[in-house]
Each structure stands twice: as structure tokens, then as C-alpha cells.
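So, can you check this record?

>
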Amino acid sequence: MNFQNLFSIEGKVALVTGGSRGIGEMIAAGFLAHGAKVYISSRKADVCDATAARLANEFGGECVSIPANLAEIDGIDAVVTEIEKHEDHMDILVNNAGVSWGAPLGEFPENGWDKVMDTNVKGVFFLTQRMLPLLEAAGTPQDPARVINVGSIDGIKSSIFDNYSYGPSKAAVHHLTRQLAAHLVRRNIIVNGIAPGPFPTWMLSTGVGGGGDVDATDWKTVADGNPRGRIGTAADIAGLAIFLSSRASGFTVGDTITCDGGAVAAS
């Protein structure tokens, strides 16, 4: 038995959607620091380009920006087409791009439902579908390709926020993870999921009173309400993503693992 490279992703090629900020940026940074080549995608081209340049400079390696709206099939196809110009395989796909929408129950709009479901569920399914040839080209019985779907603890327990489409969308992602895993495991593609809890992100900041200003948000109050007494760090989420991308998780299939400091366990 050789345990020396159990968690290695050296030389792997990865795509992280929603990689320009938040949890996606944290995962992309961890991948780069551990020797992977990383493509990141997000809707805003200037932000995506700037993040890719900054991450490459800070962590080394190659980080490539491919801006696109992954709630739309045209955007999904554009990302895949661009990657195919440069790569003949994809070792790791992280479906992280996601949105939320908050409004009181009686006022919740149809577009707030559709936007969340299109980005969080439809985008995950169709990007994975379109990426299958590249994933199959990478996967072998000894070293399968990996798909990691980023859900949420709001897909496991009821949210405290008035974001009525978000929790159901993430519950759908968790079940889609199991279904894709069952169909793809014999094609040398392992699918798993992560359900994050509180992390210092733009999205959570908008819900806890920070208005999207991550630096000015009162994260101590959020931390005080968590069983671990803190919020998540980049090392927490990147560490789990690296595990799910490495040989260490080679027999873990169709699972959605919480990364929440005990929030679900204590609920």
C-alpha cells in the first residue's frame, strides 16, 4: 500500500464554476496551491478575469478565466467549447455557481423562483452533461474523474431566511448528485457533493445584514451561533474539495458531505 500521494491532485485539470468569489474562489485557490490547473467561470467578465490573475499570482500555477452565464444553455456550451480548444480531458468539475433570492412568502416573485432554479439546478445538470466527454477522457478505473456539486445545509434543514427557492434548489442538487453518481460511477466518473454552512461570502453577507460587504459584515455574531464557535475558512472548504478530488475518496460515491461546523448535527 502506498499512502504517500493519497491526497494529491498534482497535474489535474479542474473547472470551478462561480469561481470568482466566495466558496468557488476558496476551492480554486486550494486547487492551485496543490498543483492543479484551474479554469474558473462566473457571469461578470471583469471580476472573473481579475480573480484568475490574482489567484495565479498568489498561489502559482495556471488559472484561466472563462466568463459565462451558466443559467443558460448558450453560456454552458460556450464554456465547454472554450475548454475544448485547450484541453482534451477534464479531471475535476466543481459545480459551485449559485444564486439566491429573498422576499416575503406572499410577495415572492416567479422570476425569483426561475432564476434560482435555472442557475442552481438546471446549470449543474446541463454543464455536467456537456462535460461528459472530457470527464470520460480523464477517468480510468484506477483514477476516476470527479464531479463535486456544491449544495447547502439549507437543502437539508429549513432556512432562517425568506429565500423560498434556494433551499429547494439545493435539496434538488443533493438528490441530483446521488442520481448522477449512480449513472456515472461505471463510466469512471465519481460524483459527490458538499453542503456548506456559514462561510464569509457575499451571498451570506446579504442575508445577515452585511449588504454584500463581506469585510464589513458582523461575522462574530454568525460565528457565535455556530456549534464550532466560528465560521468556515478557505482551508475548510478547499480541504474537503481536495479530498473529494483525490485518491483518498476513491470509494466515496454519491454522498453529500456537510461542511458546516456542526450546524446540521445540532439542529
User: Anything to note?
Assistant: The CA atoms of residues 41 and 260 lie 25 Å apart.
